[in-house]
Amino acid sequence: MSESPVALGEWTHDELEAHIRDLEDEIESLDESTSAMRNELAFIKRTLVVLTDAEIGGEHHPLEGLPGAGEQTRGDIDDLQSAVTNHGKQLEAIRDVGSEKTGKDEKVAAIAAFAQQKVDGSQSKVLVEASEIRGCTGVSRRYAYDLVDTIGNSDQYEWAGVRDAMSVTTGSGTTQKKKALKVDCGKLRGNSQDPDTVNKFTTRTDEEGR
Fold it and tell me: Most buried residue among 44, 54, 97, 158 by CB atoms closer than 10 A?
């Protein structure tokens, strides 16, 4: 049987003072705990704001908006991982650009991949000179120029053309421009992010060539 609580009127003066001091100590301890929790919550909130770049906290709850911010951040991370994966696949597709190519299609693919790497982001069209073709395919200088003509003048490769050799007059004199292959990387890539983009866009289909 539980012990009945002592009625307030039955406490002595000293007992009441001791009880009040105990209550004050408990209140002080609760205040300290509450202050620590508030500091921790503020730290967590600041961290979440940095991680999610979102406005967190509102009139009704200090972490209002967090679930939506978390979902957005998760989606951003997934998009980033997908972009990194696609970039890795594209790098994998051109990893052997510098090795010697045995077939014409492989040489064309190597040149196309090299051209895509030359794009600096400000324009989609680049020039690939014979010396660069030699470097990425391993062919001779003469065959490199043959490839410029073969690829640039063929309807089979709609993304390519030929920039003929020319003399350009400048304020300091005349500059000789060598024959080069013009590559439109926008047409080459099309709208595909597939890792096999280079192979897909090196040639037209029979229907497109007609």
Answer: 97
